[in-house]
Amino acid sequence: MPKITDIQTIRTRKNGTWVFVKVLTDQPGLYGIGSASDHYHARTVITAVETIAPKLIGREAGHIEDNWQTVYTSAYWRNGSILNTALAGIDMALWDIKGKEAGMPVYQLLGGPTRAAVMAYAHASGEDLTELEDDVRRYIEEGYQVIRCQLGQYGGGGFIPAAEARMPKNLHGQATAFDDEAYLETLPKMFAYLRDKIGFGPKLTHDVHEHLKPHNAVTLAKLLEPYRLFFLEDLLSPEQVGWYRLVRQQCTTPQAMGELFINPHEWTPLITERLIDFVRVRVSKGGGITQCRKIAALCEWFGVQTAWQEGGDNDPVNQMAAVHLDLSSTSFGVQEENHFAPEEYDIFPGHAILEGGYLYANHSPGLGIDVDEAKAYAILNPELATQSFYMAEDRRSDGSIVRP
Ligand SMILES: [Mg+2]
After folding, report:
1. Residue 356 in contact with residue 142, Cβ under 8 Å?
2. Nearest CA to 324 among 63, 102, 117?
3. In a domain, 272, yes or no
4. 113 φ, ψ (degrees, to nearest 5)
5. What is the enclosing helix (H) or strand (E) of 127?
6. Quick check: 149 and 194 in contact, CB under 8 A?
7. Separation of 259 CA from ligand 1 center, angstroms?
8. Cα dist. 9→38, 113, 322, 375 in Å?
9. Which of 15, 231, 374, 400 could be bridged to 254 by S-S, CB 3.0 to 4.6 A?
């Protein structure tokens, strides 16, 4: 049985925001790859992996569950974003090793495929309704069945220009203000327009990015009910999930939540009380395949579906881990898509293929994806990688922050 001999990190993407864990074993050529990317704290995650590594060196690579529990409890405090990410990177690499050892793809180890391919949803957006409609139609033509519809970026549809926002006289340098009522006015009109133009065939979603105050979030869910969304995403911030009970009492709009979740106490009540319809934990932030396969199993018993988070800053290895879970989980609902640059895809031989609204895995043993380290380092801009990155900052008319 292979034993862990070393745990290394690989940092890449032009700006250095992708981090991968490489677990090496005492068997020649047998290693595993996992995703430990954190757009805002790449260097912190690398330090966490380096701190954890000595605890695992010399242990059996195949004792995945025991290794997971060992790392999970090794810092006493647990369920934090950074340590979960480091743990997930190691965990994915151990599943990759076990698959290579068995000569099977990870989805086979997880019980075998329950579907032929993974239905993905597209991200359509536009600065106005016609632009959005064009983008939605483009994705329909590409084969997508589920399409997320946004007006611009985070909070789009809820911003009013500074000149109209009646800001305090001592507030300067803020070009727009997010306004709950503006958002409540815009979004129902957006879906009325789209349903009028494209009908009820395409499955549509929308991401609120947690921008609304809780009582307005309940109102929005109710106002959108006639447009029969596939799901409404991130209606509430993680701190306000108790309001999902009111949403359930008020309307049938399906709810997707959880991309900011890192703690079982966040997702367990929402699943077991059937307060959401789709759980959206990011595989690496939830603690890897070991943790997320348990979430998927929990979802099955309560009729909740999985929609593991991907999107902008995620990486092809985390995407591949999600695809293996998607293929093998009965509770799978839909998978968020990613788009990577050609030179980025080139770093990851075996990456998932996105075509006609479906993601396809290959049938190679393990996760089926590798990191070409020479290409990974060639693309990295060391100067950019020293910069700090921060979440976009939206504010209301009085200058107070909108919690994303
Ligand atoms: Mg979201």
Report:
1. yes
2. 117
3. yes
4. -70, 140
5. none
6. yes
7. 6
8. 13, 30, 20, 15
9. 231
Closest CA to 88 of 354, 325, 362, 336: 325
Q: How far apart are CA 37 and CA 340, in angstroms?
A: 15
Instruction: Return the number of other C-beta atoms located less than 10 Å from residue 107's C-beta.
Output: 23
Q: Strand, coil or helix: what is 350?
A: coil
User: Domains in the chain: how many in total?
Assistant: 1
Range of the domain at 261: 109-366
CATH of the domain at 346: 3.20.20.120
Q: What is the Cα–Cα distance from 21 to 8, expressed in whole angstroms?
A: 6
Q: Report how far ligand 1's centroid is from the alpha carbon of 86 (Å).
A: 22
> How far is 190 from 194, CA to CA, in rounded Å?
6
Does this model's pTM top 0.85? My answer is yes
- Residue 315 dihedral angles phi and psi, to the nearest 5°: -125, 165
Residue 391 lies in a domain: no
In a domain, 194, yes or no: yes
Tell how far the Cα of 168 is from the centroid of ligand 1, in angstroms: 31
Q: Which tens digits make up the pLDDT trace of 240-271?
A: 999 999 999 999 999 999 999 999 999 999 99
CB atoms within 10 A of CB 161: 9
* Token duo for residue 93: 């690499």
How far is ligand 1, taken at its centre, from the CA of residue 241, in Å? 14
- Rounded to the nearest whole angstrom, what is the distance from the C-alpha of residue 66 to the centroid of ligand 1? 32
Q: Which amino acid is at 126?
A: G
Which of these, 174, 188, 171, lies nearest to 229 by C-alpha position? Answer: 188
Phi, psi of 334 (to 5 degrees): -160, 160
Distances (CA, A) of 183 to 14, 240, 258, 314: 35, 19, 22, 28
Rounded to the nearest 5 percent, the helix, strand and coil shares of the chain are 40, 20, 40
Catalytically annotated residues: 154, 209
Residue 94 counted as domain residue:
no
Residues belonging to the chain: 404
